[in-house]
Amino acid sequence: MTPNRSDAASPLERLTEVWQRFGSFIRSQLTWGRVYRTTSYLKSALWTVPLVAIALELLLSPMIHALDASQRWRLGGLAPAGATALYQTVITLTLSFVVFTFGSLLVAIQVAGGQLTPRIIATTLLRNNVVRYSVGLFVFTLVFAVGALNRQEETVRELVALIVGILGVACIADFLFLIDYAARLLRPVAVVARVGNDGVAMIKSVYPELAEALTPQAAALHAGTPAQSRVVEHRGASEVVLAVDLTTLVALARLRGGMIEFVPQVGDFVAEGAPLFVLYGGAMRIDDRSVRSAVAFGPERTLEQDPMFAFRIIVDIALKALSAAINDPTTAVLALDQVHRLLRVVGRRKLHGEVILDKRGQPRVIFRTPNWEHYLQVACSEIRACGANNLQVARRMRAMLEDLRRTLPEHRHAALETELELLDWAIQTHFSRPEELALARIADSQGLGGSSGATQSPTRS
Questions:
Q1: Continuous segment of H or E residues that includes residue 318
Q2: Where are any strands of DSSP class E within 282-379?
Q3: Phi/psi at 211 (nearest 5 deg)?
Q4: Beta strands in 114-214 (DSSP E)
Q5: What is the dihedral of CA 323, 324, 328, 333, to 10 degrees?
């Protein structure tokens, strides 16, 4: 039997069904993790600002030409041949500036990645707004001048010619500034300072509360978790955890009356099929896609939600400087300056426990974060191993540890004492003469030659 025509869906009903399916598909794709990853990528993409500049020019150019045609101002007194020459000159200049800027940037990325660390490329060079907006100005001027030349008639558009001239002068000034800025940007002290600034901002964002005293965790790991559990594995490309939407996870666990454990840590590489979540109790009823969508993955670590990565970048710069190929201990001291700064900030913050509570004080999410000992070990261990045989590094590290012991809360001192003992042991293995050993044990904020060490003289044993 064939269905009646009355039973068949009407075109409006079919259109509604298609629209609902399309809406469901869009909602399924616009997850928190994907939005976060896209936003993080756009922040480090060099093409976004020039693309916006082109769209802005296409929007403003018709308005400016219409305004010029209606008012018929006499501003510059250019003849048609002069206006044409102006437009062609500006086009040539801006095109040369764009080519030179991108070519120089590629060389700078290779040099900086080889001498410092490749991890500064995405975190420092490509996210630099001065470079991005400079290229945006060049592209805007280029497209605007091309449009002005294309619309050039026997009568000169005075306002358009004036704007092109102003933009051309602005591009020349910006290009000269960009050369000086790029030369300063690639200095080691500028790179480590920029990473330090980003690290301080991220530490204050991730750990907003100050540490007043050493308090026990709200709950121990796995304490009070139900016996029944279910594992959610990672699906998709094997990548690095960039960030986690903790607010959503807490809300999901509270809604189901259970607990959610996030197995890896921000910055960890997660392979396909590896455990991503462990759901306890009522949380076992949560859909896998709901918890997976609360995690953002990417090809490499970023500073967002990952303060430890700032330490990692600066330590890598110090290790590269201490390598036999470069042998630049002064750059390692500059890196220790920023490590000192970051440790002082993180040592004064209240670091998260591994259990996150909801508003009622119930444990809902197990989320691992680095503790004070982890930060201190990353900051000191490798630099001490590679640089304890250098007077500058040994003296600067001692000055850092002693200053942190004086200024940080008492519950941070035990780990600092351990690092000082390890530094003493490392120095003794590298310096056999008593004079050198005494000199290496002096705390000096400049590494060698600072006033903190000048008032002391090496003792003989």
A1: helix 307-322
A2: 295-298, 355-357, 363-367
A3: -90, 115
A4: none
A5: 40
What are the backbone dihedrals phi and psi of residue 332, each rounded to the nearest 5 degrees, phi first?
-65, -35
Measure the CA–CA gap between 359 and 430, rounded to whole angstroms. Answer: 54
Terminal C-alpha separation, the chain: 108
The encoded tokens of residue 9 equal 């869906």
Residue-wise burial string across 142-178, b where 16 or more C-beta atoms lie within 10 A, e elsewhere: bbbbbbbbeebeeebbbbbbbbbbebbeebeebbeeb
pLDDT tens by residue, 260-303: 999 999 989 999 999 999 999 888 999 998 899 899 998 888 88
Angle at 90 between CA 86 and CA 91, to 5 degrees: 115
Q: pLDDT tens digits, residue range 289-347? A: 889 989 999 888 888 778 899 999 999 999 999 988 888 899 999 999 999 999 999 99
Assess contact for 213 and 138: CB atoms under 8 A: no
How does DSSP classify residue 412?
A: G
Q: Which helix (H) or strand (E) holds 275?
A: strand 275-281
The hierarchical CATH code for the domain 229-296 is 3.90.1170.30
Provide the residue ranges of all domains of the chain, joining segments of one domain with +: 37-186, 229-296, 307-454
Q: What predicted TM-score, i.e. pTM, was given to this entire model?
A: 0.76
